From TrEMBL:
Pfam families to which the protein is assigned, alphabetical: O-FucT
Origin superkingdom: Eukaryota
GO MF annotations in UniProt: glycosyltransferase activity
Keywords assigned by UniProt, alphabetized: Carbohydrate metabolism, Fucose metabolism, Glycosyltransferase, Membrane, Transferase, Transmembrane, Transmembrane helix
GO biological process terms on file: fucose metabolic process
Family: Belongs to the glycosyltransferase GT106 family.
UniProt entry tagged with the keyword Translocase: no
Record-given protein name: O-fucosyltransferase family protein
Organism for this UniProt entry: Gossypium tomentosum
InterPro entries xref list: FucosylTrfase_pln, GDP-Fuc_O-FucTrfase
CDD domains for the chain: O-FucT_plant
Keyword Zinc-finger applies: no
């Protein structure tokens, strides 16, 4: 007992000493903080945040020594925290699950895992770069375009879903040798956004950048001095070049102007390399937001950077419409089933939901709680700042999620796919998307294992889902998320971790096999019956 009392006195002195050093170090932009958390006694952790001043080596060594002493004392005299204390209990209502801040903060305080490498960048990313220039054999617009042939496009869905339509519209115009009229945005979707193309994207830049590929005009010119109505057509989903030449070209030749309606995912995912590179030129270079939107987005990024050197942007899709359409169950009992069931009745063609099967197949969005657990297991700590992207300000969210150090999504919707591809193209910036099929089983069994075992399994399951180079085989997944035709590797560079790469590719194949192209953003759901009737 005497030894214990002596040790306690020494610890008090140590803590007091550390507090004094902390106050002194704050003047030199160095902060040392001790956090004490209760869990079956004491769960003691030490958080160290050092800013730029490197000459305070003695303070750093002292803090580490104190940490070791504290951890040694707690491990000897107090039992370790149990697995049950490291996880949130199952919620009784879906509304509780939506408490993002509470869920993330709780789980970030738990003891985390460690990837054993830099969490904020990939060592091999500098060896890869985006390459989308046309080859010498690619015919330019002035040599290919036929006169008096106009293609109009009516996009569908939210901003990112419409983005895919705009990209494919340019390619479709090239296939048809037609002049493209600036696409008409969907103003009747779930979001009820009345913006036109020129209010979101820099229309003049769009036209000039693609002038060598496709002739683009702002509006359909009058015919015989009068306005004319183009013929409307809806092509099948995933229509390939031959399909366009068979279904659209004869009508275009006859009427001179054709409008393709509900133009989302109406072009084949697999095209020849030159057409895929054209997709990349449109997506990553020609489609640029207007200056006011860009300035506001940059300001948001700067504000996040002011808080910390690095930050995470989390695209969290957890609206009732999304949950209802997915057919998933989140533990809210009869009240949740009744509320989501009522919303689900809006889509009469949907089959009866099988929540267990849907979750087992990895098609349920992760809850905020599960996202927090995943990130903590990967090694992100409680000092991480998170920008939550979820709402109608899709353009601003897109900019912040593109510029963030690490992008995380709890779903595999349009925005997640588009940003995954963009971040690959511009340097393979870390992009974390959950391996939902594997994590589902792990979350079910999470209270029956230690935190160390849980975090180790999360890190294993996430191989192939982190945005690293060569994570996916060429041709796998949607082209917008894996633009392999537009990714080049520096010559003479051999990548490392070949075993991990092989594992990643195998797991990525499994991930692609469970994808459902129709399970996309909530704005698309309101027109699902129309899609299913195609």
């Amino acid at each position: 007992m005497e030894n214990i009392m002596t040790t306690l006195k020494e610890l008090k002195k140590l803590i007091f000493s550390l507090k004094i050093r902390r106050k002194k170090s704050e003047r030199n932009n160095t902060t040392t903080t001790i956090h004490l958390h209760g869990s079956n006694g004491f769960y003691i952790g030490l958080k160290l945040i050092f800013w730029r001043k490197r000459r305070r080596v003695f303070s750093f060594i002292s803090a580490i020594s104190g940490c070791l002493l504290l951890l040694l004392f707690s491990s000897v005299y107090f039992p370790p925290p149990t697995a049950n204390n490291l996880f949130l209990p199952r919620h009784s209502s879906v509304r509780h699950v939506v408490n993002v801040r509470e869920a993330l903060e709780y789980n970030f305080e738990a003891s985390g895992g460690n990837l054993g490498r830099d969490l904020w960048s990939w060592s091999q990313s500098t060896f890869y770069y985006g390459c989308s220039n046309a080859s010498k054999t690619f015919q330019t617009a002035n040599r290919k375009k036929l006169p008096d042939r106009y293609l109009l496009i009516a996009t569908s869905g939210g901003l990112n879903q419409q983005r895919t339509g705009i990209i494919d519209a340019v390619v479709a115009a090239y296939i048809l040798n037609a002049t493209l009229v600036i696409p008409r945005l969907d103003q009747q979707s779930y979001w009820k956004d009345t913006s036109c193309f020129a209010e979101i994207f820099d229309v003049n830049w769009f036209i000039s950048y693609l002038s060598r590929d496709v002739e683009i005009i702002k509006e359909l010119p009058p015919k015989g001095g009068k306005a004319w109505i183009p013929r409307t057509i809806r092509v099948p989903r995933k229509c390939d070049p031959t399909c366009y030449e068979t279904r659209v070209l004869p009508v275009l030749n006859r009427t001179q102007a054709v409008e393709l309606t509900k133009f989302d995912y109406r072009l084949s995912n697999r095209l020849d390399t030159e057409l895929q590179k054209l997709r990349c030129r449109v997506n990553y270079h020609a489609l640029r937001f207007t200056d006011p939107i860009l300035k506001m987005g940059k300001l948001l990024v700067e504000r996040m950077k002011m808080k910390a050197k690095y930050f995470i942007a989390l695209h969290l899709r957890f609206e009732p419409d999304m949950l209802a359409f997915s057919g998933c169950y989140y533990g809210g009992g009869d009240k949740e089933r009744a509320e989501l069931g009522a919303i689900r009745k809006r889509w009469k063609t949907l089959h009866a939901s099988n929540p267990e099967k849907v979750r087992r197949n990895g098609k349920c969005p992760l809850t905020p709680e599960e996202v927090g657990l995943m990130l903590r297991a990967l090694g992100f700590g409680s000092d991480v700042h998170i920008y939550v992207a979820s709402g109608r300000m899709a353009a601003l969210d897109y900019i912040v999620c593109d510029e963030t150090d690490v992008f995380v999504a709890n779903n595999n919707g349009n925005m997640a796919r588009m940003l995954a591809g963009r971040r690959r193209y511009f340097g393979h910036k870390p992009t974390i998307r959950p391996n939902a099929r594997k994590l589902y089983k792990l979350f079910l069994d999470r209270n029956n294992m230690t935190w160390e075992e849980f975090s180790s399994r999360v890190r294993t399951y996430q191989i192939g889902f982190m945005g690293e180079p060569n994570e996916m085989k060429p041709g796998k997944g949607e082209f917008h998320e894996n633009p392999d035709s537009c990714l080049c590797q520096a010559r003479g560079i051999e990548t490392i971790e070949e075993k991990n790469r092989k594992d990643a590719v195998e797991m990525s194949d499994e991930y692609q096999s469970i994808e459902d192209p129709d399970w996309i953003d909530v704005d698309y759901l309101y027109k699902i019956e129309e899609v299913m009737s195609d």
